[in-house]
Amino acid sequence: MSTNSLPKDPHILLSYINTQLRDNYDDLVEFCVSNSVDINDIVGRMRAIDCVYDENTNQFK
Asked: Does 25 have pLDDT greater than 70?
C-alpha cells in the first residue's frame, strides 16, 4: 500500500489508521513498514488535524 492508496480525507485516514493499529499492528512503525508508507507523511497529516500518536495506547489522539 502506498501513501496514494490511503484515504485522502484526514479524518477518514485517522479512523482507518487507528483501526489498523488496534486490529493488526503493535505500533505505528510496524504499520508503516508493512504498508510501505512514510511515517513522516502520516505523522504530518495527522498533526494537520491536531492529532498525535500515543505509543501507550497505540493510536492517534
From this structure: yes
CA torsion angle 14 15 17 19 (round to 10): 160
Q: What distance in Å separates the CA atoms of residue 49 and residue 30, rounded to the nearest whole number?
A: 22
Q: What is the mean pLDDT of residues 50-60?
A: 98
For the whole model, what pTM was predicted?
A: 0.90
Please list, in sequence order, all residues whose beta carbon lies within 8 angstroms of the beta carbon of residue 39, skipping any fewer than 6 positions away.
28, 29, 32
Contact 54, 61 (CB under 8 A): yes
Per-domain boundaries in the chain:
7-60
Taking the CB of residue 28, how many other CB atoms lie within 10 A of it? 21
